[in-house]
Every structure is written in structure tokens, then in C-alpha cells.
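Re-run with default settings, no changes from the original entry. Doing this only to confirm the output is reproducible before filing.
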Amino acid sequence: NQTLLSTLSVDSHCYDLFVTDDDTLYCCFPELHQVIAWSLRNPFPVISDIYGTGCPGSATWMLNWPCGISVTQSQDLYVADCTNN
């Protein structure tokens, strides 16, 4: 979606992405230690969910260099949190 790409600005590179059946785009940003989700059905690029705090860590609510993602049909998000093994 060119509108999404030209309007949305993030200060990092998306390492891996996944699009679900309900048109939600998940993208992991290792340098930001976050996974971010956007609804592609929304005409304006609005972040719908953020996973991780933006700081590296090993607590259950933190990520440390997420480098892979997948979402199941039941909307369970799996993250390959590389530095946390």
C-alpha cells in the first residue's frame, strides 16, 4: 500500500514482517526491541499494538533484538527474540 509506506515513518529497519488473514501487518524492529502491528484496513497508518518496551531486556514484557515473527490463525504472536535465546 503506497499510502501506508509514504505516510508511516519509523526510525529503524523492519527485519521481518507478517501479514495476517485480517490484514494486520506485524513488523519486528530489532534495534528498537519491539514488534509493531498496523491494520492495513485502516486508511490511515495507525499503530494498533506494540510489543516490547523499546529497551532490551529479558522480562516477559520485554524483547531483546526480535528477529523473526509469526502469527497463528488464532492470532497468537510468536517472536524469535534472538538475544534472549
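Confidence is low (pLDDT under 50) at residues 1-7. The chain has one helix and six strands.
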